[in-house]
# Entry
Amino acid sequence: MVQLFKVFLLILFLFSSLNAKDIYTEEEIKKFIGKTIIIGFDSFSLNTQLKEDIKKYNLGGIILFSKDYKTKQLKNIKSPKQLKKLINDIQNYSDYKMIISIDQEGGKVQRLNKTNGFTNYPSAKEISKKSKKEIQNIYSKLSKELTSYGFNLNFAPVVDLNKNQHNYVINKLERAYSKDTNKVVEIASIFIEEQKKNGIYSVLKHFPGHGSSKEDSHKGFVDISNTWSEEELLPYKELIKKNKADFIMTAHVFNKQLDKIYPGTLSYNINTKLLRKKLKFKGLIVSDDLQMKAISNHYTLKQTLKLAINSGINILVFGNQLGNTKLETIVNTIFQLIQEKEIPLSKILESNRLINKFLLPYSI
# Structure
């Protein structure tokens, strides 16, 4: 009872502190900004740079990778023992709950696998052929494995409809469950529930739909204007209605049906008008990696941050797989945009409120 009362007071303090005053110091504002960022890093242990990012900027979270995207060399994960120590050291060093995230879909996209001492899980395509009970058992095991190492957020499930058989990044990599909305929602719901039971937040991706695309947004501009249909919104609609959507990741796809100028991640029409207002999403909107070529080839860092935050993005992801951007640079750029009145501080404060609201229940 005493513990619950303490948690209640902590929640009151965090929420009230964001609204208690109109003027914040530069240090406070930069810490609010830092809380909205998930970053990748090149290390197997808690290094000096990470320590500085946590203490100086209240870094919101990290994302771990098994290999470097370019060199294919091992990156953050060598073994179960090393991984557990890394995550424990990070959470113990921080005096607040951090997001510890990973892409663990199964199949081609699983950072923990047999090659580094963990378990291999089936792809979405393989999963779709199994019974409900088998699916439940597989995702229960996956979720428990993530929890045992200290993860609290998984960038999964993929809820893209498998609309284009020539699509490499979704279809060819077997990341979609089906082209049928009901089947996608059914299997995604099982994944989400099993993760929730084990203290793992799920991230639905890639809004407003990547399944009909022809190109890969890791490599460059992707236009789905002529292939996308409103049907691709249905998995999101259904999962939001069922109260199973806490985090939704945006796609870097351009769709002139929804926005004539900006790709999804940078679009106010898509992230606020469509997702927030029309679909009534109340959770956290997370960007896909902002270093992907679909964004970085066409926008400067300052333009990207301004557009993404103003579009409604709450958490900015910099995987440092396709680039190398320091947290200090990101925070200072956003702080400058706030000073120049290009971004309202209220956007950052609202994102902090949502992050605190969602992460606190899992930190008890």
Notes: Residues 27-363 form a domain with the TIM Barrel fold (CATH 3.20.20.300).
